[in-house]
Amino acid sequence: MITEAMPFVPGLPISSVERETGLSKDTLRVWERRYGFPTPERDANGERLYAPMQVQRLTQIKRLMDRGYRPGKLLALDDAALAALDEARPGVLASPNVQHLDNWMHLVETHDSEALQRQFYREMGKLGLASFVLDIVAPLITRVGEAWSRNEIGIFEEHLFSQHLEKMFRSVLANMSPQQGSPRLLLTTLSGEEHTLGLLMVEALMVVEDVCPVLLGPQTPIDEIVRAAQLKQVDAVCLSFSSAYSPTLSAQGLRDLRQMLPAGIELWAGGYGVKAIRKPIDGVCLMPEFQGLYDCLAKWRTQHGYEPVSASVISLPATPK
Amino acid sequence: MITEAMPFVPGLPISSVERETGLSKDTLRVWERRYGFPTPERDANGERLYAPMQVQRLTQIKRLMDRGYRPGKLLALDDAALAALDEARPGVLASPNVQHLDNWMHLVETHDSEALQRQFYREMGKLGLASFVLDIVAPLITRVGEAWSRNEIGIFEEHLFSQHLEKMFRSVLANMSPQQGSPRLLLTTLSGEEHTLGLLMVEALMVVEDVCPVLLGPQTPIDEIVRAAQLKQVDAVCLSFSSAYSPTLSAQGLRDLRQMLPAGIELWAGGYGVKAIRKPIDGVCLMPEFQGLYDCLAKWRTQHGYEPVSASVISLPATPK
DNA sequence: TAATCATTTTGTCCTAGACAATGTGTTGAC
DNA sequence: GTCAACACATTGTCTAGGACAAAATGATTA
Question: CA A21, CA B172: separation in Å to the nearest integer?
């Protein structure tokens, strides 16, 4: 990571720091009060001005928090101790197939765009779409997230990686026109959750299962989700939550939506973000793993009188029993 | 728009209202104090609970504000007067080629996904990529935005439209591999600006001009933009701002970035969001229209000794004079 | 070992005042 | 009549410290 001395930078206002770090203004102020960090200067008007070095440290702290450390502990540490935590490997998190993913990670680290793109298409041709998503893409996204949280790569590398994945998914899915399949599934996220890759993975997996996905993209307000679900006559709404989305907000948003959504339409929620939700929510199906998606699908199909269709069977138009 | 009576909804907490309306908690509280609206109930703990009807009204007010009306005026109006404003056509904003776009708008309004997708590809084949973007896509996006601000369509229709556009752009651009062209251009947005379509339009226009675009996707923190620009050795950073992004924040962000970006790398900013920026910013090229992009490109090329290359000329690898 | 309770931690919400940045309207000069 | 400069009104954001509930941690018991 680059740590360059910046000339003539008196400091960033609190709104810029919120934008850069993702920490709310309230949190920044209360940390200052409780832990004595950060220690911003003040401008002529008494407003906070954060030194760039402190902003950098705040982003580092935020990253470590996403990894599970708690602020009270982190804010008491000095630079050296923080850097040491970056190195520490969380043995539990380490995904399987590590060996195999190392080659991919090398391409990500060196931002070798062309090679990455080529490799994606080759591997997909080799494994087929479903296996490619489940066995390569999903673990790889996890791995990239871990690498970022360990400060081995930056946001830049993560963004570039995501862009290539997205480009690949979209060009592949463009030619697999939505069939007349069942159930019909609305794919979107709540306002504030901007990650699209989860939705694209679900779309890819569901298309080959004869499901008819309607991709709405990220950040739909709940009343518009309700309207979309009714107009497009979907059987279920499927939301995706990344680990960055606060579990409190996820749960609150799911409750809000369940309240307004007609009872006949199911509500499925997936992604790393739902792992942190402890209490089950009435009328909401939480799917922390992709397996849950298949479970929900199978359950819906048996309840609605469809023969279970395996992914490996050539799919004819599904008909009610 | 659907206005259904919701059962058992005591009200939404302020964080949900912020998520749904895009109005900050500070703003919601100060409106209540100053204008006497909204008038949330309180829960046992004294915290605000907003009635769903009021939330709906707040989103309507926000929409009208994006159209230029001021809060002080809007908050004094009753339901009927607000609805009347929705109808009022802003004659000035009306785009040219209205006649031609009507057919497209009909497809958007009826959420006819298949027809829309087909029509995109046909028209692109007919006009060529550059003309398609400049003469169809850009005005159509404006038109859709206006229709939304006039409450003729909802977020749902707008999202669906955007998704189809994005799918089309990405599958088309996937096969136009980045050349070795010059200048090298980094495409991204600041944190908080999630609109990707502007970036994709720029990528499409630049690819056919022999520029080598590096698409980073939306929401990159400024220090990572700096790092990406250096690692990918780009000649300029190009940011996109939608009209939803506050002009104050745009200007602040551009100043922040210009401060940290090496002087040798140019900074270009485009999109509707920069129209509202009054004062020019030192070392930043503001391009409210697409023409500005071509101007910046031509200027860079003459300054760096490249022959100007027209879009209509078959492009050979550009070489310094 | 697993489940229940008590305790700390931590983010968000509260009030109400202040100010700067922007928008609007008015005056005056040409 | 048109345009610049001014004064005034509007509006979002920032400040302060207190309060509380949800979540995480540690202690106790079955």
Answer: 35
